[in-house]
Amino acid sequence: MKKSIFFLTFFIFLTVFIVLSTGSQAFATGEAEIKKSAGRLNISIDPRIELLSVVRLLSGYSEKGHAAYDTVYKKAALDHFKKFKKHPAVELYKKMTNSGFSYDAPPSTMLHLSWPDLKVKTPFTDYLITRARGIENLNKMAELFADFAKKSNFEAFYKSNADFYGSLIDGAIKAIGKNDFAAQLESYFGPGPNSYNIILAPILRRQGGYGPSVKSPDGKLDVYNIMGPVGADEKNYDFGGTENYRSLVWHEFGHSFVNPLTEMNSAEINLYKKLFDPIAKQMAEQAYPEWQTSVNEHIIRAVCARLSAINLGESEYSGDINYNKSRGFAYIEDLCSVLTLYEQQRSKYAEFKSFYPQVTALFKKLAESNLTEEYYKLKFTGTINAALSLEPASYILVVPDGEKDAKINAQIVKGAEAVKKMFMKSAKILKGSEALKLDASKHSFVAYGTKEGNSFIKKHMEAIPVKLDSNEIELKEKIAGANLRFITCWPNPADSARAIIIYTAVKAEDIVGINSVFHGPTDYVAADGEKILKSGNYKKAGGKWTLK
């Protein structure tokens, strides 16, 4: 999944309310979804996925960092189905997840079943059978889920929430607008699948999604993006804006183009398996536990970066590369270099599948190159999102030593405590003077306050080529405003692989609520209140960061 939305929401408290758009809505379709279309994208709330979400809720299981938001809808689901917490379907789900049947496997399985009887409509793939440790478990799961749905009157619950589901779909339609992200994919890869389907799943998981595919009767693929919300308050879900849908369509649907090609070339790809060893730990931490999966992710992320360059510009492309390298995708830049050759020679390579041998040739070259530790050494190169993707346990939240107004100081500290509670449970909170005494090489830092009120910020702002005065911010040119705020990331001088993020302002009172400023995809943001005045990336040359 692309970085910008995932890590932006890591710090944003601002609730994005769903705006309803006009248009007809389909109920009781072939699969009983509630759905609409946005160009070639089908947007739906699928009862099979909602049923899975309910069973998962009752099981108490949640993937790392992806427990459902506490909302009215979640509470309604728990209340409606609480009597069925010990149902055999829930018990089997617990058993299977504890045996590795998690992440993409359960929702992929549900899409092979019919609705409402949950019979096997499309044969299970070898992949799903392996994940479930036998087809018997998949058949048993389908049988027990059907029994759960019948006895719990799931259909009544689903129908009672039709208006709510419709509002989520309308929000997605509005965010996508007139963009044809599927066409952008096919322009790059070549002819695509039978259909593109986005399933909104409000309580299945947070952020990001899964990208399963199911064979249609004619042998083509129906591809899916089952996506969770990026944020929520008690009553409203936020599935993100245009960029979120763009990144998820490119990434998740991109797998339908890439994965089959890697599978077809798996024998050769596996010859270069030693390339996995230096990145294995970081890949495993992101649920990519083996080489072939990692290869797919490398290729997908490289293609998404090139799509950013083509459709959004070089700044977005650079941000993509930096982010993915910070996540351990060591080969992405070399892959992008190869992909530029593909882009320049489309008359020779009409489709990506004809170019794939050049990808395997690159891995062969890398495997024979005896790459050094320097090649794999991670260096923080921006952006704010990338800074927030670093090892969670290493973070220190730095609060003011003492802003002039004690009440404001307390509010800033309270805000940092909220960040810790919601998003950075393992982080420590220290005052600026305390943070300066630490061995900084072991930590990344997130600091709040003014230069006058936080000694940590005062020290590190000396190296940043930005000046904050009484009523202006100087970023080469001067920017004026009444409520000036500045958010920036910067390499940790004690360890170039780690980062410092600074949330500061001209006036201490403007630090309060600063996370509501839109930030993340760039290195820095200057704002007047919540109005963005300037954002961008630093120029990085010779290990030195400067303003462009």
Verbal overview:
With 548 residues, the protein is α/β, with parallel strands linked by helices. It has three domains: 3-239, no CATH class; 265-376, no CATH class; 384-546, 2-Layer Sandwich (Chitobiase, domain 2), CATH 3.30.379. It is built from 22 helices and 20 strands. It has a seven-stranded mixed beta sheet, sandwiched between helices. Strands 1, 2, 3, 4, 5 and 6 form a six-stranded mixed beta sheet that branches. Helix 2 packs across helix 4, helix 14 (291-311) packs antiparallel against helix 15 and helix 16 (332-344) runs antiparallel to helix 17 (352-367). The protein is globular. The two termini are 29 Å apart. Residues 1-31 have low confidence and may be disordered.
- Biggest sheet strand order reads 10-9-11-16-15-17-18
Total number of β-strand segments? Answer: 20
Structural class by SSE content: alpha/beta
CA distance, first residue to last residue: 29 Å
Number of domains: 3
User: Rough shape?
Assistant: globular
Summed over residues and divided by their number, the pLDDT gives a mean of 89
Q: What's the number of helices? A: 22
Strand content: 15-25%
How many strands, what sense, and barrel or not for the largest sheet?
7 strands, mixed
Radius of gyration from the CA trace?
24 Å
Helix content: 40-55%
As residue ranges, the low-confidence spans are 1-31
